[in-house]
Amino acid sequence: MRDPIAIVGLAARLPDARNIEDFWANLVAGRDSIHRLTDEQLAATGEDPQLLAHHRYVRARPLLDDVWHFDHRYFGMSEREALLRNPQHRLFLELCSTALQHAGQVPDDDVQIGVYGTCASDRYAEDHIRAHPDLMPLVGETGLMLGNNADYLATFVSHRLGLTGPGITVRTACSSSLVAVHLACQGLRLGDCDAAVVGGVEIEMPYGRGYKHVRGGIESADGRCRPLDAEASGTVFGSGGGVVVLKRLEDALADGDTVHAVIRGSAVNNDGADKATFTSPSAGGQQRVIAEALAAAGVDAADLDYVELHGTATQVGDPVEVQALAEAMRCMTDRALPAQDCVIGSVKSNIGHLGPAAGIAGLIKTVLALRHEQIPPTVNFRSPNPLLNLDESPFRVADRLLPWPRGGTGAPRRAGVSSFGFGGTNAHVVLEEAPEMPACGEPLWEDDELLVWSAHDDTALAQLRSSFADTLADAGDALPDVAFTAQVGRTALPVRAALRVSSAEEAAALLADPAGRVTTCSDGVVREPVLLFPPLETAGQRYAPRLAERLPGYAEAWRECVKHLPDRPGPEATSEREPRTATVTGFAAQYALAKALTGLLPEASRVSGTGSGTITASVVAGTLDLADAVRMLEEGTSPPPSPTSPSPSPLWVLCAPGSAGADTAHPTGPVVTALARTGPEDDWRALLNTLAAVWAAGGTVDWFALPRPRRTSRVAVPTYPYQRQEFYVPAFTSAEVERHAAARG
């Protein structure tokens, strides 16, 4: 396999499907999501009454829920910008964000993430914005162009999400999104980026209207899309979109990503002049691109179990495509192709034709089929188009839900996905099932985990809480993976909550109950963490063996400290020894804990101490040398003044034992105890409580520095529940524009 590419994240909003889970459920059920439109619905869209009365007018269109709705606050946009931004741009931005969340990938300066995307041409700018005489002066021509031109689709996403890899918009008609996948794979192999969000969208304009069928045209005569069927009469164009996140396979495995499928190879070409007209399909061009993709993948065509066709359901297009596929497969194998051994189908039977987003929809369907080990049925298929000659081909149509088990033939399951565009730009991708992940092995320890979630408001926070309850109810022993992904795979938002739990079952039960306890939640006040060191003579300050086992920084700091001490107290040193040794032990314990905390809390740079605790505070702040501190302790020298003044609204992190998990009051803010008094087994839980409190107060935690009980993976956890509201400029008719112009004089 040459430079395989992993698919590590998925997102989709499609007809009757708000997400990939809905989409898969619809596919398995064989649901036809092309909507039947009433005359009342069509009249509300402004459809021409004369067109409605035409005998060939078809009242059908695949539609999206909440097509005009958008969560502007989540993406940092003003209401005005959201209103003027093209709905396709908004949909693509949301899908890219969701796909990155599904992949557990947070944009940062260390990871170059590219954007390869596509959308359709539409008339939103002309029919909805320019048509309003009072609105255009507020927008201006440049603003209108920047908010609507397809050229800015990818770079708009790069800007809004802070992605620093290539931002490339692709326009090759119906094959655009699969061509974008091919280009993204090339970019990853060349090192242009470390990850890529790739896909496409279309919102059919004017939205929500039917169409007039033209005999011999590409659009269906009755609003049904019947790929490969004898009654096929064309496709139905609709709205929707999808995005995948890609990484080099070796990087994905090293990073612990969930790999949903692997792209073995891909190819793109053009028909050239080898066809009757500009829009005609070319068997030669399609055959070449499939063969080139198989060659690039290093895959024998006889090993393909399934091919997701372009499948426009036209009487010309389907036979040409099946013929080209058969010839390509025969060219790319030395073996005989068994009759009807390879399954074929097309997602257009479910959701219609999404224009430039058609290819990504087919790709996501095939990835889900690999993951769920089932091939969905091709709906509306009753009997094969006789021009396909299926009896003499290697193919059979997926006319029902078919099992596709991993390991069923002893070889990896493989599939192809085709997408062909008007003008002859063809694309084909060869997929393979995800590799088996190695067992995690025995855990290093069994203890509590910290689950965190955040939102822009309490409503979204509550919805996330409920979603996490559902996820954890079926998580089994995957709590460490869920906790890890929630920590490192999400951008921290202002309203936050955290829960320390010992099992997925406990977490699910607590989260499902709106009144169930949480470890901490934000109160809307951002507080700076300040490490507070009480007097060294405080009873109970001791070596924490549980933390020393799990936090290298703690053990290293303890050793660094005690090597300067004549008495060299070890782990057995306790407060019951003579006072000077107790003081030394307290100093070593405070210093080691502070070093561990500053490794986990990069913003905890402020310190404060009381009494002899100011010695530890001065060493941690860098104003007193460690060796000098030891001498002061040995000589009984008075401690220096506290090195910093406290913040007016800090979170005090008490670097000494206290009641397990209990917060206490302080004149300038709450206090959280970083160590537990009840015993060594509670020290880890107290530390997690501290991290939870700092994070909920708006602080930063270096989650990657937190030790794990075993190797953890990024897994699918709930994505953000967007709080959408409608942003829609109604389309004006020409008569309305004239009335407005007359009113303005």
What does the secondary structure layout of this molecule look like, with pairings?
Layout (H helix, E strand, L loop, with lengths): L4 E9 L6 H10 L5 E2 L2 H6 L4 H4 L4 E2 L1 E2 L7 E2 L8 H6 L2 H17 L9 E7 L4 H7 L5 H13 L4 H9 L5 E3 L6 H15 L4 E8 L8 E2 L27 E9 H6 L6 E10 L12 H15 L6 E5 L8 H15 L10 E4 L2 H4 L6 H15 L1 E2 L19 E3 L4 E2 L10 E7 L4 E9 L15 E7 L2 H16 L5 H10 L6 E7 L2 H9 L7 E2 L6 E6 L11 H6 L1 H11 L16 H22 L5 E4 L3 H9 L4 H10 L14 E9 L4 E2 L6 E6 L6 H14 L28 E2 L7 H10 L2
Parallel strand pairs: 6-7, 6-8, 12-13, 12-17, 13-15, 22-23, 22-24, 24-26
Antiparallel strand pairs: 1-10, 1-11, 2-4, 3-9, 5-27, 8-10, 11-18, 14-16, 17-18, 19-20, 20-21, 25-26
Helix pairs in contact: 1-14, 5-8, 6-7, 9-14, 11-12, 15-17, 19-20, 20-21
Q: Low-confidence parts, pLDDT < 50 over ≥5 residues?
A: 573-579
Q: Strands of the biggest beta sheet: in what spatial order?
A: 7-6-8-10-1-11-18-17-12-13-15
Structural class: alpha/beta
Radius of gyration over C-alpha positions, nearest whole angstrom: 31 Å
Helix share of residues? 25-40%
Q: How many separate helices? A: 24
Termini gap:
70 Å
Q: How would you sum up the major sheet?
A: 11 strands, mixed
Q: How confident is the prediction overall: mean pLDDT? A: 92
Strand content: 15-25%
Apparent shape: elongated
Question: Describe it for me?
Answer:
The protein is of the alpha/beta class and 745 residues long. 35% of the residues lie in helices and 18% in strands. The chain has 24 helices and 27 strands. The strands form seven sheets. The chain has an eleven-stranded mixed sheet, with helices on both faces. A five-stranded mixed sheet has the order 23-22-24-26-25. Helix 12 links the parallel strand 12 (304-308) and strand 13. The longest helix has 22 residues, at 579-600. The chain is elongated. Residues 573-579 have low confidence and may be disordered.
